[in-house]
Amino acid sequence: MARKIQGIKAREKFYEQLANKQLTLAETIKAMRAIVGMTQTEYAKFVGIAPRIIIDLERGIGNPTLETLRKIGKPFRLNIIFSVQ
């Protein structure tokens, strides 16, 4: 039960940091993987993208498409939006 509570708290903290714009893309992906307890390769396969994409994005390199970002965020019900200012 303690592990489940820890998982819930980690998820709540993640959503709070995300809402407050405290995470980079790399940090966001790493946090999502940590919450679900998957390796980079496992998460990539789970969301249907190449492992190299996750590896590069977590290193702060790469230029993902909106579709790739949508796939990465889907397990957490994250919607990808952008605005022009």
Question: Keywords for this structure?
Answer:
434 Repressor (Amino-terminal Domain), mainly alpha, 5 helices, 85 residues
Structural class assignment: mainly alpha
Number of strands: 0
**Biggest β-sheet description:** none
CATH class: Mainly Alpha
CATH superfamily: lambda repressor-like DNA-binding domains
Separation, N- and C-terminal Cα atoms: 46 Å
Given as residue ranges, the uncertain stretches (5+ residues, pLDDT < 50) are none
Measured as a percent range, the helix fraction is 55-70%
| DSSP summary: helix tally | 5
Instruction: Evaluate the radius of gyration.
Output: 13 Å
List the domain count as a whole number: 1
Bulk shape:
globular
Task: Name the average pLDDT.
Answer: 89
Strand coverage percent: under 5%
What topology emerges from the helices and strands here?
Elements: H1 2-19, H2 25-36, H3 40-47, H4 51-58, H5 66-73
Helix pairs in contact: 1-2, 3-4
